[in-house]
């Protein structure tokens, strides 16, 4: 059985110990290193040959966001995925974490089975960004004073996408799942997944999480009214 190598980065020893126990309980996961600071996380991501880094945001000397940027920007760490650990599912740092290259985020109150499944999901190269979490992220984004791109930026960024791929990306950015998008566009979920994968390849997005960020940057963001419709439908 192929082992998924995990690096735990958290400044609290007791938290690291708990995560270590949970991860090592899974037959296909193994903890290869622990880091108590951001700088150690970057260094150990390289020396431990980790597949997934569980990254806390608030750490000494170098916070988790900066550490994530360094890891995702390093050519020799291209295969390393970063899973952000947060106190709340969506907080003020999540959007910046995704912009930094994280593959998703997980609340620290998550149960053991969900944590193990999250590591496996990120290791497969998939984004850990549920529709509900995406909606929360959008709600936060719409309230932030984030510089909006000029309309001219959209054609430049999305010029290589087909019309159907653009539609798919726009709907992903509303927090809709592949099944919801398939129903909306009268397609099969597999076809939607194919469009999403093609869009990620063309845009250079490593996963669905970065695709959401790129959609924002390209101007394919939902309006407050559209968001409210999707939020209500999720309840």
Number of distinct beta strands: 5
Sheet having the most strands: 5 strands, parallel
- Name the average pLDDT: 80
Write down the secondary-structure element order: EHEHEHEHEHHHHHHHH
Going by CATH, the architecture of the largest domain would be 3-Layer(aba) Sandwich
| Rg calculated over all Cα atoms | 18 Å
Q: Helicity range of the residues?
A: 40-55%
Low-confidence stretches: 146-153, 222-235
Query: Tally the helices: what do you get?
Result: 12
Looking at the structure, the CATH topology of the largest domain is Rossmann fold
Domains counted in the coordinates: how many? 2
For the termini, the CA-CA separation is: 39 Å
Name the CATH superfamily assignment of the largest domain. Response regulator
Largest sheet, spatial ordering of strands:
2-1-3-4-5
